[in-house]
Amino acid sequence: MHIGNVHIGTCGFSYEEWKTVFYPADLPSNEMLRYYSLVFSFVELDNTWYRMPNPNQLQRLALITPSDFRISLKVHRSLTHEIDESWQTKADEFSLAVSALSSTGRLGCVLVQLPYRFSYTIENRKYLANLLAALSNFPLVVEFRNATWYQDRVFETLRKLKVGLVTVDRPDLPGLPPESVIITSDICYYRLHGRNTDLWWSGNAKSRYEYCYSEQELKDRARLIRAMAKQSKTVFVAFNNHSSGYAPKNAAYIQSILAEQQL
Q1: How far is CA 29 from CA 16, 17, 18, 54, 145, in A?
Q2: Confidence at residue 1, expressed as pLDDT on a 0 to 100 scale
Q3: What is the CATH code for 6-262?
């Protein structure tokens, strides 16, 4: 369910380790999204970062969800982390898949998540401008992992382009983006990565995000989400602490807090 203009969900949904924690133990993998969509109104498909999405598969996946369910697509790594001279061709291929999802009415937005090494340089600024232009037919949000991008010039450019700036919940470490909500479009996108300070740089994809938010932390973030909802047309909240099933657990709890406070 969505609560007003707020959609709560997780980064990814097809984790075998979520069985017995979130999914029934005997649930077939091809039924996971249908089950998931009965609990949450939004999902971020992060597997589109690992492999280029197939338009037909995306359409079939989307159409097993309710009509008010929303899906965001994380841009393929060839456009953010492994950029080469063929990026325009890759952007066209990715756009075909996004268009197929959009035709189902379930596209939330496209997430451009950039790595820490993608700092604020002339070369990177030019590339990002070109990438955003190539994907401009879709609602876009950008997540910077490097704090050098957090300056008024960037914010104003994003507002002109109507591109949202992702609010990042992460460990308190030097060089990472500040904990601030900066609204640059109709979409406010909040990604929660956990607070594993010791493992942020040294951990792997599992250990880095193996973090369970406490009840108090979730209550604090629920207040922040309510503030976001007053400033933007749509809010997407994506829990990325997927290890050990913490993401659906935390997402369900914060969803219940927001639902109760709406009454």
Answers
A1: 8, 12, 11, 18, 32
A2: 59
A3: 3.20.20.410
Task: Give the 3-state DSSP-derived string for 3-42, with helices as H, strands as E and coil as C.
Answer: ECCEEEEEECCCCHHHECCCECCCCCHHHHHHHHHHHCCE
DSSP conformation class of 85: T
Phi/psi at 16 (nearest 5 deg)? -60, -30
Q: What is the DSSP string of 216-252?
A: HHHHHHHHHHHHHHHHSSEEEEEE---GGGHHHHHHH
Structural contact between residues 194 and 210, judged by C-beta atoms closer than 8 angstroms: yes
The pair of structure tokens assigned to 234 is: 């749509």
pLDDT at 262 (0 to 100): 63
Amino acid, res. 181: V
C-alpha 38/C-alpha 51 separation (Å) is 26
Predicted TM-score (pTM) of the model is 0.94
Question: What 3-state DSSP class applies to 116?
Answer: coil
CA-atom Rg of the chain in angstroms: 17
Phi, psi of 56, rounded to the nearest 5 degrees: -65, -40
Rounded CA-CA distance 124/168 in Å is 21
User: Could you read off the pLDDT of 162-220 as tens digits, one per residue?
Assistant: 999 999 998 887 888 888 899 999 999 999 998 887 777 777 777 777 899 999 999 99
